[in-house]
Amino acid sequence: MSSVVAALALAGFVQGLTGFGFGLIAMGLLPLVVGIDEAQAVTTLAGIAACLALTGLTLRHVRWSGVGPLWLSTLVGVPIGFGLLALLPRTLVFRSLGLAICLMVAFELIVSRRRGARLPDWSCYCIGLVSGALSGAFNIGGPPLVLYIFDRPWSKEQQVATLSCVFVASGLVRLGLLLTHGRIHDSTWISTGWAVVPMLAAIACGNRLLNHIPQRYLRGGVYAILLALGGRYLLMGG
């Protein structure tokens, strides 16, 4: 129990401090202590709680004109990723998780240095579909959405609010799939319940420190940890 609380608190702290990475951190750490099925369930519940809290605080900034297409394509992608994952053997699931984490870190590193023309508006459908599939499979659908939304000519407040709003929708769809397939257990609710308050406090603490620590050092440290975790899953298969 304490390991789950600590992992989700760390994920929340990183999310509040850097603006990204909750699912990546949670799914990198939790399988080590509760197994991958329970990790996915706990991350889903905790992620919904975190995004609901943030969305409630920033609802007035949501760009609703940009939410619709992202909701639609993301919600189509979640069941696709969830279904594909169910077909894989357990060892391959862990290796796939490791590969996905490593690729998402590489994706972040490349995108953070990207310069050039803005992504066209129609690309939101492709971005949402890929994000939904990654979310349905591993709860790590954030990077593609971050790429698109932070590329829009919106204010920072609008970008963060819209991103959280889309995450709530995809999280609820994934929760419905987990409930339908009997993947949410009493232990899942208990673990998440104990972790919610520390996690939300960690998000607030991380956000408070946001302007006091150089982002490049923070991101570098997070990327190094994630690559180590992803490499472990990829090479060892569990």
Provide a concise account of the structure shown:
The chain has 238 residues and is an all-alpha fold.
Average pLDDT reading: 82
Q: Please work out how many helical segments DSSP would assign.
A: 11
What is the share of helical residues?
over 70%
Strand content: under 5%
Distance between the termini: 20 Å
Number of strand elements: 0
Overall form: globular
What is the alpha-carbon Rg in Å? 16 Å
Integer count of domains? 1
Q: How do the SSEs run, as a string of H and E?
A: HHHHHHHHHHH
Structural class: mainly alpha
Low-confidence stretches: none
**Largest sheet: number of strands, sense, barrel closure:** none
Protein architecture, described:
The protein is 81% helix and 0% strand. It has 238 residues and is mainly alpha-helical. α7 packs antiparallel against α8 (142-149). It starts with a helix and ends with a helix. The model has no long low-confidence stretch (mean pLDDT 82).
Salient structural properties:
mainly alpha; 238 residues; 0% strand; 81% helix
What secondary-structure arrangement, pairings included, does this model have?
Blueprint: H1 2-18, H2 22-29, H3 31-34, H4 36-58, H5 64-86, H6 90-112, H7 123-138, H8 142-149, H9 156-180, H10 186-208, H11 215-236
Helix pairs in contact: 1-2, 1-10, 2-4, 2-11, 4-9, 4-10, 5-7, 5-9, 6-11, 7-8, 8-9
